[in-house]
Amino acid sequence: MKSKWTIFCIGLLLSLDSFAQCAMCRAVLESEEGLSAAEGVNNGIVYLMAIPYILIGGLGFIIYYKFFRTQKSK
Fold it and tell me: Distance between CA atoms of 32 and 39, rounded to whole angstroms?
């Protein structure tokens, strides 16, 4: 169980530095002089992408916890 938790934490930490843009957003933002707008768009994309995964992961954890807690009490 400890190795699964360690692998999960390492995977989470490695994914924090990933940024993405669609091709059109990238083309528009690279034509600007300042890169602050591009950085803001990248951060917004990562934020919007991460929230559903956090919610589904939390829901999965709650279901997993409740299922195995009832198994131990029987």
Answer: 12
